[in-house]
Hints:
The protein is mainly alpha-helical.
Amino acid sequence: xxxxxxxxxxxxxxxxxxxxxxxxxxxxxxxxxxxxxxxxxxxxxxxxxxxxxxxxxxxxxxxxxxxxxxxxxxxxxxxxxxxxxxxxxxxxxxxxxxxxxxxxxxxxxxxxxxxxxxxxxxxxxxxxxxxxxxxxxxxxxxxxxxxxxxxxxxxxxxxxxxxxxxxxxxxxxxxxxxxxxxxxxxxxxxxxxxxxxxxxxxxxxxxxxxxxxxxxxxxxxxxxxxxxxxxxxxxxxxxxxxxxxxxxxxxxxxxxxxxxxxxxxxxxxxxxxxxxxxxxxxxxxxxxxxxxxxxxxxxxxxxxxxxxxxxxxxxxxxxxxxxxxxxxxxxxxxxxxxxxxxxxxxxxxxxxxxxxxxxxxxxxxxxxxxxxxxxxxxxxxxxxxxxxxxxxxxxxxxxxxxxxxxxxxxxxxxxxxxxxxxxxxxxxxxxxxxxxxxxxxxxxxxxxxxxxxxxxxxxxxxxxxxxxxxxxxxxxxxxxxxxxxxxxxxxxxxxxxxxxxxxxxxxxxxxxxxxxxxxxxxxxxxxxxxxxxx
Length: 534
């Protein structure tokens, strides 16, 4: 008892001393009582965060055993089929981790699976933010940080994918070398600088290792920290519902509810990755063998997050242009440099573009329902379909071989599909969103169908209806839809473009026919926070 009392006294004294010098109690009180919306979609960001934590832990352990040298040695490890073959020190250390270090293969596969989950959860998290409008004011900067975080994670994944120096990753490095060479004028100089001479060089693996374990993780940590700070400061968005407005956050406090829930998710992610790594083999570099510059691995397929680049390269016709003594390789430059560059710029600037189109400068803390923004939802679905076509095209040779199809015919199918499928998916998605709005209008006016058909006094059969639940009607009515801009004859061209885009975005809608009381409640829920107005 005396020891316990002494410990309590020491802790109390230490906390008091810190609180007198730092805002400890105030910070802890604010942090522990912060409200978090209780909805599963908000855990997607948590999933990405905990995958990143597992990546840091497993990557730090693997770095203790990995050798990034490019010097050729003879392999004398435990994997008999490669005994006596010349391999690089990087490939030898990868096999050493996989077969000779206790638990090494499990940790290496956990690292790889965690990388796939990290990028997948970030992608889905970004899609959730896009479809719900969580990128609008005041979260534009946080959206941009998230986009940068995703592309930096792509770079980190490519660096780690290339480190084993096996035949599969070497094929990817050969593709990367070709992409760098396709850059006009500066491409040859950049390739010589990065590879330290003529391909394949002897310094790239070491440089990628430094990037993979030092510079890129530091940048990821900085971006993740900034992202979390802004999430905490700006508060979470939330789905509309009774009692939820632009001026509050309805949810559970961080401690103890959210802390326990988040801890459970971390343990679940760790256990799932461990089981998956134990039963599902990923990246078996020993079956590919060491990299040789004059060989290409059969069925060479990159990880899913760069598969769209592979598909774009395969679909692009062999177009080249010779000008001023330089060769422009459009078949590489367009799909592998200009397309990703355009994609990154569009993603970064989309919040600014939508704000420019709408002219909306108000704060938004309630999530949009995708059906209420049919054009934005259609654009998102079209982008997903375009990505899916490119990803499928990245394995056109495997598909053609497996199903006994013509590779040339399949390539043309994907080429046409890349331009046609997104347009069709956009039109279908927009039509479905408008149909869902029309259904809500019917429910709002007539109520929900009971499934009972009755005959009226005139002899006609009609379905029975009952009033919909109040919380459902609330979700129908509380929607923040900007009005399309009126025409501006004689205005400058950029303003006419703005009007045209505004009418394209918001010209098609279904007016729900809400009552004055319902409209008043919707306006109250969507009102901007008072402290922000000042």
